[in-house]
Each structure stands twice: as C-alpha cells, then as structure tokens.
Amino acid sequence: MLSNELLERLNNYPTKSVNLVIKCDPEKMNFISMVMNGYDRICLPRTRYGKEGILDLITSPDFVDDLFLILEDLKLNHDPSLEIIGDLGDNWIIAVT
Fold it and tell me: Is the pTM here over 0.90, yes or no?
C-alpha cells in the first residue's frame, strides 16, 4: 500500500509547460514574436488568430515570472491593448487546436 505522502506527491505532479493566450493589436503581433525570440526564446510564440490579434505563448514554468515582466513592459511601452485572455495550462492538446 502507498503512503499518504507518496499519494499526495503523485497527485501533484509538476507542470511541464505554461500556455498563455494573449490578445494584442494585430499589427504588433510580429513585433511581440520577435521580442520573445530576442529574449533567447523565453517562450514559443504561436499565432492562433492573426486577424484578431490572438497569440499563444508557450513557456516553461521557470520563465513565467520573466515572461510576465516582458509582457508588462510591452503593454506599457508598445501596445496598451495587450492583455492575457487565458491560460491553457498544461494541456497541449487544447493548445494546438
């Protein structure tokens, strides 16, 4: 029989990735993707709906805080319309559909 501590650890497995969905000015999407690439691929930007300015940002849990700082700076200095509209969590199937 497994101990309660082990069962709890097995039920709280670490997150493999964080999938944020952002909305921005469609004309700024390429710029935002280039900024993310310029930060040594802090995340993988993926266009979901280009005409509406919807972009997925897939990152490691280790980089989430840095990613939020970059998004905050982009919103403040380049695209005031930028906002996080969703978090797809660790479910990569939803992220690719």
Answer: no
